[in-house]
Amino acid sequence: MNLTHRPRRLRRDGIRGLVSETTLEPTDLIAPIFVDATTDERIAIESMPGHERVPIDDAVARVEEVLETGVEAVMLFGIPESKDSEGTRAWADDGVVQEATRRITDATDAYVITDACLCEYTDHGHCGPLEEELRGNESHEHDADCAHDPTLTVDNDATLEALERIAVSHAEAGADMIAPSGMMDGMVGAIRDGLDEAGYEDVPIMSYAAKYESAFYGPFRDAADGAPSFGNRRHYQMDPANAREAMREVRLDAEQGADVMMVKPALPYLDIISAVRREFDHPVAAYNVSGEYAMLHAAAEKGWLDLEDVALESLLSIKRAGADLILTYFAEDVAREL
Ligand code: PBG
Q: Is the distance from the beta carbon of residue 290 to the nearest atom of ligand 1 less than 6 Å?
């Protein structure tokens, strides 16, 4: 029996911390916040316990709550007062995210990242204006048949123009960083050009570079009222079966000037986080999405899991896989524990 090697020697209290390979800090975390232009009161989000949509008047107070926990960055999502087929409220100077950003950056030191996407602003719930053929079909209200025709989808290039406008309007309102999440080809380059032309060359872009068409976004779509009214997002978001394709997506975003590369979701895609970490030099962000949050809460409610422990272990695992930053609905709870 050769027991010269006993890894257990290093697992005792006192030495554990010294040999720990991964540490989690509140400053690694980004807290997503939902600002809702349709309400005067906070509205609880049922499928995301502890989270609320907050009115614009409460945006500053909400961010102050986050800052108190030691988390320094927030990601803003907006629910506009009205929607249309093009999503025009997404780039309005008096839009919900623009207004909230102005107030938050005036009143606090929070680092404000804004989500640049159209799905919360279009009446059909897709991440950009629809192609000609689909738009012409409005008479039969985007029935399921259109969605089954694989040639009909979001108009990529028309969406780029909208994203450019959105990004510039966010930067004008004071956003510190822009995060495009629509998975349009060329979105990072278009936004970079737009920001540079408008004089915002110092505003970085965190690209949702490898964003999968995931069923784990369910609770978010309730929260942000951004579910597609027909079809799905598989014509623009990635197939969960693909890993090499993620490297291609990240490479393209790197070429277009993305500053931070995001992988989304996080826990079911730790292999992708780890591969991006190995192959690229950019900071890697991971989005621990709404479904990952909701399932731990649901199990904890039944008494099947300890919520604090599984939340902490989840975030630690995402960090260990290679993420430098983590977007998570657990941000405040975990930061308080650290
Ligand atoms: C919008 C967007 C989504 C999420 C973030 N931005 C939903 C989607 O793509 O359908 C999901 C976040 C979450 O589930 O927590 N493009």
A: yes
Q: Is the CB of 235 under 6 A from ligand 1?
A: no
Q: Is residue 252 part of a domain?
A: yes
User: 111-128: per-residue pLDDT in tens?
Assistant: 999 999 998 999 888 888
pLDDT digit string, tens, across residues 197-240 = 999 999 999 999 999 999 999 998 878 777 778 778 888 899 99
Longest CA span, the chain: 79
Q: What does the radius of gyration of the chain's CA atoms come to, in whole angstroms?
A: 20
Active site residues: 211, 264
CA 106 to centroid of ligand 1, rounded, Å: 27
**Is 225 among the domain residues?**
yes
Residue 147 has pLDDT above 70, yes or no: no
Count of domains forming the chain:
1
* Side-chain half-sphere exposure of 308, counting CA atoms within 13 A: 5
Residue 142 lies in a domain: no
> What is 262-328 written as a DSSP string?
EEESSGGGHHHHHHHHHH--S-EEEEE-HHHHHHHHHHHHTTSS-HHHHHHHHHHHHHHHT-SEEEE
